Amino acid sequence: MKKQLLGTAMTLTVAGLCSTAWAAAGDTAPWSYSAPTGPHNWGELKSEYSLCSSGQTQSPIDIRDAVKTDAKVLNVAYQPSNATVSNNGHTIQVTPVDAGGITLESGHYSFVQMHFHTPSEEMIQGRTYPLDAHLVHRNAAGELAVVAVLFEEGAHNPNLEPILAAMPKSTGGTANLEAMNVAQLLPANHNAYSYMGSLTTPPCTEGVRWNVLTTPLEISRAQLEAFQALYPMNARPVQPLNGRSVHVGG
């Protein structure tokens, strides 16, 4: 794949999933990450966004006091696939043709899309990471499961490079990737914090199975700055736990 210089998410319906960072195409209520259309006001922008304010199982969260369980590590079965890299106005999104999926105790979920947030939306014991990737999956019933991968600043990440090199600089722009292997974007250790939550963007739909991998990956300063040149900040603040439990294998 020819590399270029580094350039410096979704409405759940019965029919399926439309992307945002997840924002749905044609959405008439603009939202952003800053006032007056930022996270604290999402619930008032449109009636369909009311859960952003009233929901009791919202994401992201600050992961603390996780309960150890005997649950198996995340079972991934990804395969190489062509994909589209798009700039949707809220994030950079990667949408594959057919990239396999994951199996949880609740069944199989097909990989639908992935996108990025800076800084990380998830916190671990109060710590924020400079970037995260959300891998969105859906099962046959339309239920969602997200795998979150945290990135810390360090060495150059060659597996992330093709995506960063293809990032369209303008909203609405797209580019193509050949034979993207999602499995290469995950750490070798698939142990994860798991909890029930929501979409982290409007409409903040609940009932999403979250799996935040416990092992972060590295990304170089130059790679991080390439993404932040397009999106300096696109993260929702952490939400109240409201009595939910977080589990971790081990």
TrEMBL record:
Catalysis: reaction(s): hydrogencarbonate + H(+) = CO2 + H2O
EC numbers: 4.2.1.1
Annotated Alpha-carbonic anhydrase domain residues: 29-250
Residues of the signal peptide: 1-23
InterPro entries linked: Alpha_CA_prokaryot-like, CA_dom, CA_dom_sf, Carbonic_anhydrase_a-class
Gene3D superfamilies in UniProt: Alpha carbonic anhydrase
Enzyme class: lyase
Keywords: Lyase, Metal-binding, Signal, Zinc
GO molecular function: carbonate dehydratase activity; zinc ion binding
SUPFAM superfamilies associated with the record: Carbonic anhydrase
Family: Belongs to the alpha-carbonic anhydrase family.
Protein name from the UniProt record: carbonic anhydrase
Source organism: Pseudomonas fluorescens
